[in-house]
Specification:
single chain, 112 residues, Immunoglobulin-like, 22% helix, 38% strand, globular
Length: 112
C-alpha cells in the first residue's frame, strides 16, 4: 500500500508541474501590432519563440501581411478592415514582414 501512495504522489506532482507550465505559457500575452494609415505600428517588436503576434487591421483598406523569413513563413491573406490575423513564431531570428498590397509597409520581428 505504501508503494502505491508514493506512485500517486509522484503522479500528482507531475500533473501539478504540467499544469503550472501550461498556465505560465498561457500567461504570455500576444504582441499586438496595428495596421493604420498603410503603416504597421510599432514597426519593430520582440517575441519569444512560440509567441504570437496579432496583426489588427485598424485601417479603412484591406491588407495582406506576409513573411518569407526562413522558419517563420506566413501569409495572412486578404485582411479586411477590423480583422485580426494571428501569427505564431517557431524559430529564433529576424522576421521581415511586408504587406502584399502596400509595398512600403514593412516591419521587423525579433524572435528570441
Amino acid at each position: 500500500m505504501k508503494q502505491s501512495a508514493h506512485v500517486l504522489a509522484a503522479v500528482a506532482t507531475g500533473l501539478a508541474v504540467i499544469a503550472a507550465t501550461a498556465w505560465l505559457h498561457a500567461g504570455d500575452a500576444p504582441v499586438v501590432v496595428t495596421q493604420k494609415n498603410r503603416t504597421f505600428a510599432p514597426t519593430d517588436v520582440t517575441v519569444k519563440v512560440g509567441g504570437t503576434l496579432q496583426l489588427k487591421n485598424d485601417d479603412d483598406v484591406t491588407h495582406n501581411a506576409f513573411s518569407t523569413s526562413k522558419g517563420n513563413e506566413f501569409n495572412s491573406k486578404a485582411q479586411a478592415p477590423g480583422e485580426i490575423a494571428t501569427v505564431t513564431f517557431k524559430a529564433a531570428g529576424q522576421v521581415e514582414i511586408h504587406c502584399a498590397f502596400h509595398p512600403k509597409m514593412t516591419m521587423t520581428v525579433t524572435v528570441k
